Amino acid sequence: MVNIDIHVHTTASSCSNFFPEDLVRTASDMKVPVVVTTNHKDSVGDAAFLKENFDQKGILYFPGLELTNEWGDFLVFGENLDEFQGNLPEFPRHLLPDDNIAVIWAHPYRFYAYWEIEKIKHAVAPYIDAVEGINGNCMRSKPMLNDMALELAKQLQKPATGGSDSHFFHSYFKAYTKFDTEISCYADFVRAIKEGRVTWGMAEKW
After folding, report:
1. What is the pTM of this model?
2. Which of 84, 86, 36, 92 is CA-nearest to residue 64?
3. What secondary structure does DSSP assign to 4-38, as a single string?
4. In this model, does residue 80 exceed pLDDT 70?
5. What is the per-residue pLDDT across 99-136, written as a single tens digit (0 to 9) for each?
6. How many CA atoms lie within 13 A of 111 on its CB side?
7. Could you give the domains of the chain?
8. How far apart are CA 137 and CA 47, in angstroms?
């Protein structure tokens, strides 16, 4: 089993103050085996810098991204995300589902009301592999939104994941995803999510 914080924003996202150098230092100090980033609209950004530095430290690094569209926010993971880069205001139905791409519905209730999610949840379900049940920002400000997300995952019969949604180094790994299988490459990571071999975890204190 391995724990991975799968929702992390560096300064490659304009809303974040988490510098890539800080991520390298923080992850190294914590001795995490795998690091993931999910910057907005872009999996490239500082990925070359991060990969080089994590390779030197023997830490696996997987760049994903976060898409925002009419259905909300979605974490997208895969070794080839070229078609997902940039501003995609509509959910990329023409690209998904894909055996090599894992998609997680991020913090579904953070910006959407309960009734709005009720209207779209069954339309969204065929395109996602999991629901982010524990989001670090919700954990800190409105934990009931995480409770609602966990219930949504049950309703849709999807696994629930966790991620810090970190925009600052001090919130890194406050929530995370537990993988019940070995992760030795990006394909393992994607496959584990798609096979539902994941659950959520969270720090005891913020």
Report:
1. 0.96
2. 36
3. E---B--TTSTT----HHHHHHHHHHHT-SEEEEE
4. yes
5. 999 999 999 999 999 999 999 999 999 999 999 999 99
6. 9
7. 2-202 (3.20.20.140)
8. 24
